[in-house]
Specification:
about 35% strand; 2 helices; 4-stranded parallel β-sheet; about 210 residues; single chain; mainly beta; globular
Length: about 210
Amino acid sequence: MRSHPIPAFLLPAVALILQLAVPARAGVVVVDPQGAPGGQLLDAAIQAAHDGDILLVKPGDYVSFHPQAYGLGFRGLTLVADGGGSPIRLPGVEVSSLPSTGRVHLRGFVLRPEGRDYDRSGLAVEWCDGTVVVEDCGLRGASARPSASFLPNGNGLFAANSKSAVLARCSVQGGDAGPATGQFTWPGGSGLALQNASAALFDCTV
């Protein structure tokens, strides 16, 4: 399924949302592991950041030594991938308890979990009254797989008890189905999974 392009009459409203996602006064933090493992560096930058800060993420390995999703918590941050045209992969992002005045903005990432026993969605938004804006990203859920305990399929975007997620020019895909084991099947995930939440998609592929 492919979403429709942004109608002309909605462009001013979308532009306003994107403008609000980046406060006028913001510190810029450059995260640059110089191509090496950068999970701890990015996590430390997120934990030290303040509302309104912009994190410019340079190329590096942000997965191998940081298999869990990066938790932004209730911080209103902007994360921008600066990969020189190449995507930068993160093993998922989680946003939770964002207040009504908060804005999170993600741009230019591939969000795909490692498929372990946790962090099943590319992007998880929970209990947020603020707005989460995602641009030019690929969101992919973890694939289902047999396990001693059932591991559910992963979703591209999982949003629960949240008011506003806005996606523009993104691809959103659920995880692959797992192999059948006896009488059990392991279905694939959903691109979008919304529970008491709303999402607006513009020029996205789901």
